[in-house]
Amino acid sequence: MADTPLFDRITIVGAGLIGSSVARAIRRGKLAGHLSMVDASKEVLNEAEALGLADSYSLNAAEGVAGAALVMLAVPVGAMASVGATMAPALMDGAIVSDVGSVKESVFKALSPLLPDHVHLIPGHPVAGTEQSGPGAGFASLFDGRWCILTPSEGADQGALDKLTAFWQGLGSTVEIMDAKHHDLVLAITSHVPHLIAYNIVGTASDLEEVTRSEVIKYSAGGFRDFTRIAASDPTMWRDVFLNNKDAVLEMLGRFSEDLTALQRAIRWGDGDALFDLFSRTREVRRRIIDAGQDDAKADFGRPHED
User: Fold this and answer.
1) Potential cystine with 81: which of 51, 110, 278, 285 (Cβ 3.0-4.6 Å)?
2) Angle of helix 246-268 relative to helix 180-187, nearest 10 degrees?
3) What does the alpha-carbon distance between residue 50 and residue 37 come to, in Å, rounded to a whole number?
4) How far is CA 25 from CA 10, 35, 120, 144, in A?
5) Contact 43/124 with Cβ under 8 angstroms?
6) CB atoms < 10 A from the CB of 278, how many?
7) Which candidate, 98, 100, 103, places its Cα nearest to that of 126?
8) pLDDT tens for residues 84-127?
9) What is the DSSP annotation of 157-205?
């Protein structure tokens, strides 16, 4: 890493899992001359300060982003507009504004009317995370070897895009450029619908009258444990994801429902060949994910959470 930081000043708005991990990774890579952190919760901000995540801290977004060459929004998707409106007047000329949300079209639509013409809005999504939340849950290696998808609009400033790409590479990620609408469709099937299914099946198990909650916990097999891990994710964040990516999610849910009906039919009619063919095909998908380095046998790729 060069002695000169990539950005003189970076501000992270939101000190949760992703925001605190970004802060730790910035420190590790020496990417900022000064790192500022903003959060609306005094309790969360005090915890971030106690952990030494940044150089300065603020409860006010406008105050926190002043002078920042890069502003990274790590807040729930539903909060983007209110944060954008608050910080917009204080953004410096030429600042890059990006985010870490898993929905991209709605972020662009929420922020682009609010931000001044002299800043560069380039939404982004690091495809990384855990079910944990809060400043203490972050770790610097969260983005190592993971994808970060950037969704610049047509005519986005190439210099700003190059610098944001270098930033995420400095955090350990491999950067992919993608259209925002296509991103939302891809993530609907790879992330959003699986989370929705997990929330639903855990809720169903909890509501069963014939099976007590203690039995659900006591006899949980590996599959159900995996669902509970996913279903433990931050409810505010995921509420906003589904409300802001509803078209793509509903489209993928429709496809899922059709395939589930076909699976029900195969079980009802004892069609073992159809079941075997499906299970063989899905097993191959799992093997390809492992071959692509996107998983291994250890939780979170065996990475520690305390760095």
Assistant:
1) 110
2) 30
3) 13
4) 12, 11, 23, 9
5) no
6) 14
7) 100
8) 999 999 999 999 999 999 999 999 999 999 999 999 999 999 99
9) -HHHHHHHHHHHHHTTPEEEE--HHHHHHHHIIIIIHHHHHHHHHHHHH
Other Cβ atoms within 10 Å of 219 Cβ, number? 9
pLDDT tens profile 29-73:
999 999 999 999 999 999 999 999 999 999 999 999 999 999 999
- Sign, CA dihedral 106-151-57-140, equals positive
Rounded-to-10 torsion of CA 233, 178, 190, 13: 0
Which residue's structure tokens are 């420190």?
Answer: 27
> C-alpha 89: how far from its chain's center?
27
Residues 6+ apart with CB under 8 A from 128: 18, 21, 142, 143, 146, 173
Cα-Cα-Cα-Cα dihedral sign, residues 166, 172, 178, 181? negative
Cβ atoms of 39 and 79 within 8 Å: the answer is: no
Q: What is the pTM of this model?
A: 0.83
Helix or strand run (H / E) with residue 219: none
Q: Is 71 helix (H, G, I), strand (E, B) or coil?
A: strand
**Which residues have C-beta within 8 Å of that of residue 155, sequence separation ≥ 6?**
none
Query: What are the angstrom distances between the C-alpha of 180 and each of 4, 151, 191, 253?
Result: 32, 5, 15, 20
The residue type at 256: F
- What is the token pair recorded at 199? 């929330």
- Beta-carbon contacts of 304 under 8 Å, excluding residues fewer than 6 positions away, are 139, 141
